[in-house]
Amino acid sequence: MKNSLNMFATRINPTHVKFVFMLVMLAMLVLGAGAPTDNGSVGH
Amino acid sequence: MILLSAIVAGMVVGLLVSWRTKTTWQPPSFKYGWLVVAGFIPQFLAFFLPATRSFFPDWLAAASLVGTQVILLAFCLLNRRLPGILLIIIGLGLNLIVILANGGFMPLPLETAANWLPNEIFNQLESGRRIGSGSKDVLLPMNKIILPWLADRFYPPKGFPYQFVFSLGDVLIAAGTFWLLVKSALPAKPIVEESHA
Question: Could you report the predicted ipTM of this complex, rounded to two decimals?
Answer without folding.
Answer: 0.88
